[in-house]
Design goal:
The complex is a heterodimer of chains A (159) and B (182).
Chain A: H1 2-18, H2 20-54, H3 57-64, H4 69-82, H5 87-99, H6 104-116, H7 122-155
Helix pairs in contact in A: 1-2, 4-6, 5-6, 6-7
Chain B: H1 9-32, H2 34-68, H3 71-78, H4 83-95, H5 101-113, H6 118-130, H7 133-170, H8 178-181
Helix pairs in contact in B: 1-2, 2-5, 4-6, 5-6, 6-7
The chains are: A mainly alpha (159), B mainly alpha (182).
Chain lengths: 159, 182
């Protein structure tokens, strides 16, 4: 996060030094885009709040470790797709689950769908790329996440 | 852009209305069910805080990018003739920063508008989503080097595959509409 601020401040200072008019234009573009995505951001905040409420970490942990490999994989894909979690929370959770005996295959699917497939971010993605692109990107990502999980499973000798 | 209709002002207003209605419902639920309130407010706040913190910087950066960087430059490095170097650059740009995927969408749209080829846009998005340099270290720590490396190799391959698939399907028509971004 700090990375962005350092980069932005540097870029803005440079821009101001070269051309004040262009810098002003850039800020106007920024404001305009903010207003464009504001509705989707609000929608997303509400969706995330509801999803995180319905699926706290303890629930996820419970369901991932409960069933056989095939069923756990399906559950992992669904949970990973609908929840939104930053990596620094997701990996410790996965690490804990691995210690509890959840197969790496399942964790691979869970962590990859978590990051690549976004149900709650769908409105925002759709806003920029349209329904078709967003849908196909998410579906292909889901498929790939399953393959990644399978690959990890093979790598660890779980299948 | 024939496959999708251009979003109009009224559509934006509709979406805003839906978001506001949902927020009101959530607040009512929160008031009616005190047991739900705390955790829901907490998760909403964590998302809102993250967004408010990172968004201004990203937006200003996007604005500067739109004003200063010419289409030709972008095209040269990430356009249709950029080849392997373009792919590597897209992977690198995606993997470098940390931030949630939802802020990558506007960034990617800005890149697409400047003439970055579809496959590189999708590679950028995928890399942003699941190949984070700082995150790989966390993954290593909690799940081990073997898991991290296996996932890294598989996801880099996946990013390139997803990119090619979406480019095949949509060629250069990946953006919803040009008007939307201006």
């Amino acid at each position: 996060m700090t990375f962005f601020y350092i980069l932005t401040v540097l870029a803005l200072v440079l821009s101001l030094a070269f051309d004040r008019n262009k810098s002003w234009q850039a800020l106007q573009v920024a404001l305009k885009r903010f207003l464009q995505i504001l509705p989707d951001l609000l929608l997303m905040t509400v969706l995330v709040a509801v999803v995180l409420y319905l699926l706290p970490q303890s629930t996820i942990a419970f369901y991932l470790g409960k069933y056989n490999l095939l069923f756990s994989s399906i559950v992992a894909a669904i949970l990973g797709s609908v929840t939104l979690m930053p990596g620094f929370i997701a990996y410790p959770l996965c690490g804990l689950l691995a210690k509890q005996g959840v197969p790496y295959l399942v964790l691979g699917i869970f962590s990859t769908t978590l990051m690549m497939v976004g149900v709650v971010t769908f409105p925002l993605e759709q806003r920029y790329f349209g329904t078709k692109v967003a849908l196909i990107r998410n579906l292909v990502s889901l498929l790939i996440a399953l393959i990644v999980g399978l690959g990890i499973g093979i790598f660890f000798g779980e299948i | 852009m024939k496959q999708t209709t251009k979003p109009t002002k009224s559509q934006t207003k509709n979406e805003l209305a839906i978001a506001i209605v949902l927020m009101i419902i959530t607040v009512i639920v929160g008031i009616a069910l005190p047991s739900v309130r705390g955790r829901m407010a907490q998760s909403a706040w964590s998302v809102a805080r993250e967004m408010l913190f990172i968004l201004p910087a990203v937006l200003v950066l996007m604005g500067l990018f739109a004003v200063w960087v010419s289409g030709e430059t972008v095209n040269k490095y990430l356009g249709h003739t950029s080849g392997v170097r373009g792919v590597l650059l897209a992977l690198f740009f995606g993997a470098l920063p940390t931030g949630p995927l939802y802020i990558a969408f506007p960034l990617a749209a800005g890149l697409a508008q400047k003439g970055v080829r579809t496959s590189n846009i999708v590679i950028f998005l995928t890399a942003w989503a699941c190949i984070k340099i700082p995150q790989e270290l966390v993954e290593w720590q909690f799940l081990g080097a073997r898991f991290m490396l296996a996932r890294l190799i598989l996801t880099i391959t996946a990013a390139i595959i997803i990119g090619s698939i979406l480019e095949q399907v949509f060629s250069s028509k990946i953006l919803k509409s040009k008007k939307n971004e201006e």
